[in-house]
Amino acid sequence: MAEIINLRQARKAKVRAEHSAKGDANRVAFGRTKLEKLATEKAKNQTKTRLDGHFLTKATDHELD
């Protein structure tokens, strides 16, 4: 015989699982602290400045394409 399940409970469990998965995705996307974001931005700017410092002449916009 098949196992009897409560459809209301199954439906609520499914919704809880979907909300949990969405929350996990948001934590990955937006879960960084302000200091982590600033540190990443600072490192990115330092890398860009260091790279730009190695150019012999200043690159113009059309040369970057």
Topology:
Layout (H helix, E strand, L loop, with lengths): L6 H24 L3 H20 L7 H4 L1
How is the main sheet built?
Answer: none
Number of helices: 3
**Assembly classification:** single chain
**Cα shape:** rod-shaped
Tell me the structural class: mainly alpha
Q: Mean of residue pLDDT?
A: 88
Kindly state the number of beta strands: 0
| H/E topology pattern | HHH
Account of the protein in words:
The chain has 65 residues and is mainly alpha-helical. Helix content is 74%, strand content 0%. It has three helices and no strands. It has helices at residues 7-30, 34-53, 61-64. The radius of gyration is 25 Å and the shape is rod-shaped.
Describe the structure concisely.
Helix content is 74%, strand content 0%.
Protein traits:
mainly alpha, 65 residues
